């Protein structure tokens, strides 16, 4: 029964569509009609309102940090259930007919909550890739893969969960992968 409560509460927290809410409240617009139509931080930056984009990023990270840290310290056996549920909440939010974001910011929150080193590996990998390419999508894919590879080589106990997370992030970026392949992907301005 505990794991069902953890899964449901983590999913519901993860499903709060901050990008959608912030653009509705402050810009009186529907973020789904802007840029890629995605509700996440990268598309929130495309609104032209950088503070709103960064606020979306911070809140999308926080909505994973809260349930994952709580479960990590109180029900450590269920930390991966909380993590996956928060991620799935962001990607498939009940409030928006299960059409959400790509899950990267929420994944960053999961990583830092589970292990600071994993979070830093992701951020460094993302930053280096972004400096070279200027593609947020490519940076997210490579950073997710680097985390999984790091665990495969140095701590294979947890590797399966993070391989699953990489596959899910690859899935949410499938259209980006097509655009990258066809050299049609939009570069991201983060400042």
How would you sum up this structure, described in words?
With 191 residues, this protein is mainly α. It has one domain. The protein is built from 10 helices and no strands. It has helices spanning 2-14, 18-27, 41-45, 50-74, 79-91, 104-114, 116-133, 136-154, 156-172, 174-181. The longest helix has 25 residues, at 50-74. The N and C termini lie far apart (45 Å).
Keywords:
single chain, 191 residues, mainly alpha, 73% helix
User: How do the SSEs run, as a string of H and E?
Assistant: HHHHHHHHHH
Assembly status: single chain
Give me the count of strands: 0
Number of helices: 10
Which of globular, elongated, flat, extended, rod-shaped describes the shape? globular
> Strand count, sense and closure of the main sheet?
none
Produce the secondary structure layout.
Elements: H1 2-14, H2 18-27, H3 41-45, H4 50-74, H5 79-91, H6 104-114, H7 116-133, H8 136-154, H9 156-172, H10 174-181
Brief rundown of the structure:
With 191 residues, the protein is mostly helical. It has ten helices and no strands. Helix 4 (50-74) packs antiparallel against helix 5, helix 4 runs parallel beside helix 6 and helix 5 packs antiparallel against helix 6.
């Amino acid at each position: 029964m505990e794991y069902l409560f953890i899964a449901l509460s983590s999913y519901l927290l993860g499903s709060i569509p901050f990008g959608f809410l912030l653009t509705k409240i402050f810009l009186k617009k529907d973020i789904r009609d802007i840029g890629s139509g995605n509700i996440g931080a990268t598309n929130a930056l495309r609104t032209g309102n950088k503070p709103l984009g960064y606020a979306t990023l911070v809140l999308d990270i926080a909505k994973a940090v809260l349930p994952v840290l709580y479960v990590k310290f109180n029900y450590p056996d269920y930390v991966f259930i909380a993590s996956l549920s928060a991620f799935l909440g962001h990607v498939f939010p009940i409030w928006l007919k299960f059409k959400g974001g790509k899950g990267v910011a929420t994944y960053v929150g999961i990583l830092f909550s589970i292990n600071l080193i994993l979070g830093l590996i992701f951020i460094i990998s993302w930053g280096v890739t972004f400096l070279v390419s200027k593609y947020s999508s490519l940076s997210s894919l490579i950073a997710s893969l680097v985390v999984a590879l790091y665990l495969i080589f140095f701590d294979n106990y947890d590797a399966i969960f993070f391989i699953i997370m990489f596959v899910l992030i690859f899935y949410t970026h499938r259209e980006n992968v097509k655009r990258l392949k066809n050299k049609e992907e939009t570069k991201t301005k983060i400042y």
